[in-house]
Amino acid sequence: MCELFGISASQSVPIRRELEAFRLRGGREADNPDGWGLAWLEGGRFQLAKEPLPACRSALFENLGATLRSSLMVAHVRKARHPPVNTMGNTHPFRSLCCGKEWVFAHNGLVPEIVGMEQENLHAVCRPAGETDSEYAFCHLLSHLARDFNVQPSGAGSSLATLATASELVASLGKFNFLMSEGEHLIAYGHDRLHHLERDGQILVATEPLTGDAGWIPFAAGELRIYRFGKLAGRLITRPHQAAHCLRSATS
Length: 252
What we know:
The protein is an alpha+beta fold and 252 residues long. It has a single domain (3-251), classed as Glutamine Phosphoribosylpyrophosphate, subunit 1, domain 1 (4-Layer Sandwich), CATH 3.60.20. It has helices at 16-24, 59-67, 113-119, 133-148, 158-171, 240-251; strands at 3-14, 36-42, 45-51, 69-77, 94-98, 101-110, 175-181, 185-190, 195-199, 202-206, 217-218, 223-228, 231-237.
């Protein structure tokens, strides 16, 4: 059901070993054959490369992985489910403008109910270019962030709590693990399936450990983490199961 990989570092670094392992999880080492995408920071802006094709057979992905250096990246390999259609518009990561910044986002999980909820959102700040529940969830998070965007390096900004609340709500509708960034912070939400590794001024985040390093640690269920320049800037624990119970009670 899709996989994520991200990195936050204090300086631009090569990511060849991890990207090659991640590429092979796009249809060879894992059942994610329906597209791949990389968004990486270069010259202060995000560059984006993606294809609605298996990553394990992509010459473009292989070449990028061999040469790419960056201090911030969000990557994805896709198992198409909602909808089960391979198009460029449905391929992660997604990109959108909000709060005067360019954001990228990639998701692992399934939250089809968010589509109808976001279509009825009168305060939406973006509309999906594709059809996935993932991109609708991305727009939903941006709508919440637009109200009080202020992610502080200390992690004490009100946006951390806002993002946690919005993530908890979406997660209560199904499975919702994601990576997103506005070009400075790497934001990682582990609803039920995410790991992190700290090493030499770098933070690596992946659905499953990509290397043999012993330091990979699973996120706590419902944990939201924000990284900046290879360091943890803030964290909160959400309770999506409790939110789901409250949501069912309110609608029953």
